[in-house]
């Protein structure tokens, strides 16, 4: 059943000729009991897979989250994003955070949090019309690389 789903997913991306893009990725490198872990979440557009050889990780979902244990001497991790026609590589620079120090700091310094009301943002129209000319409006999304750093 897995192979049938993989084949159907590949057929779906057969006519997608755009380059895969990484819309957002958030990651942190945390050390728990002397073992380093990489926690990351992602959201992709026009991508069939996201994989990393260093982590031994492969996913066919367009958005998700994962955590992996990494070797102690790893300073950067390479992620490969691709579809049937194109592939792209992204390098994540890692900064280690110790979980014990983080727990002590977060326990002694409470940060006040107030929920902010979210107002609906009007979406742009699909086409601009001027006289007899119509042109589609495209928004190009840039990848957002965000490292969750904590000042200790």
Description:
The protein has a domain at 22-97 and 141-152: Sandwich (Immunoglobulin-like). The radius of gyration is 20 Å and the shape is elongated. With 152 residues, the chain is mainly beta. β3 and β4 form a beta hairpin. The model has no long low-confidence stretch (mean pLDDT 76). The protein has helices spanning 2-12, 99-108; strands at 21-32, 35-45, 49-52, 57-59, 63-69, 76-82, 87-93, 96-98, 127-130, 133-136, 144-147. It is 14% helix and 43% strand. The chain is built from 2 helices and 11 strands; from the N terminus they run αββββββββαβββ. The strands form 3 sheets. Strands 1, 2, 5, 8 and 11 form a 5-stranded mixed sheet that branches. A 4-stranded antiparallel sheet has the order 4-3-6-7, with no helix packed on it.
């Amino acid at each position: 059943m897995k192979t049938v789903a993989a084949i159907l997913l590949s057929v779906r991306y057969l006519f997608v000729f755009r380059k895969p893009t990484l819309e957002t990725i958030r990651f942190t490198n945390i050390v728990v009991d002397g073992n380093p872990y990489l926690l990351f979440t992602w959201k992709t557009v026009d991508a069939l897979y996201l994989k990393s050889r260093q982590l031994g990780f492969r996913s066919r979902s367009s958005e998700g989250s994962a955590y992996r244990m990494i070797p102690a001497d790893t300073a950067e991790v390479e992620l490969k994003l691709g579809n049937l026609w194109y592939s792209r590589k992204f390098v994540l620079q890692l900064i280690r955070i110790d979980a014990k120090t983080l727990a002590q700091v977060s326990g002694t310094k409470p940060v006040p949090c107030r929920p902010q009301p979210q107002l609906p943002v009007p979406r742009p129209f699909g086409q601009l019309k001027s006289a007899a000319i119509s042109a589609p409006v495209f928004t190009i999304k840039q990848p957002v690389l965000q490292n969750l750093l904590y000042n200790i």
